[in-house]
Amino acid sequence: MNGIIDVKFAVYGALQDNNTNSMQAIDVTRQLQQQIDAHGGIVAINNTTMGSDPAYGVQKQFGAIVSVNGQDTPFACQEGQTVVFYGPERPLAAELLARGQNTPH
After folding, report:
1. Which helix (H) or strand (E) segment is 19 a member of?
2. How far apart are CA 69 and CA 25, in angstroms?
3. Does pTM top 0.90 for this prediction?
4. How many whole angstroms separate alpha carbon 30 and alpha carbon 7?
5. Which domain of life is it from (predicted)?
6. Position 16 in a domain
7. pLDDT in the model for residue 49
8. Is 105 domain-assigned?
């Protein structure tokens, strides 16, 4: 447990050619926890931060269940977006994100 932020499960990947029988995804639970710990709860979702490219040449999706202050919270986004993994007690990060300060993939 990370104190206030604890990653329960996280996945990163895509459907190859939108084919539901051809999913290419990886479990990134450990990588996400490391990124949250290293970057104060703000994580750019991309091949580098997630540890690999599970679906080369395809736009990836990200989903996670993260315990924030003891409450399980779902998070989801596309590759290339930045996620703020904490609650309203840290409004500055949400404000920065709202201004479009995303990290490119």
Report:
1. none
2. 28
3. no
4. 8
5. Bacteria
6. yes
7. 97
8. no
Domain count, the chain: 1
* Residue 42 parent element (H or E): strand 42-44
pLDDT 10s digits, 42-77: 999 999 999 999 999 889 999 999 998 888 999 999
CA 3 distance to own-chain centroid:
18
pLDDT tens-digit profile of 10-53?
999 998 776 777 789 999 999 999 999 999 899 999 999 999 99
From CA 53, how far away is CA 24, in angstroms rounded? 9
Asked if residue 26 is part of any domain, the answer here is yes
- 24, 54 in Cβ contact below 8 A? yes
Distance CA 28, CA 12 (A): 7
Chain center to CA of 96: 17
Instruction: State both tokens at 66.
Output: 């993260």
C-beta separation of 82 from 45 below 8 A: yes
| Structure tokens given for 2 | 């990370």
Q: Provide the residue range defining the domain that includes 61.
A: 5-98
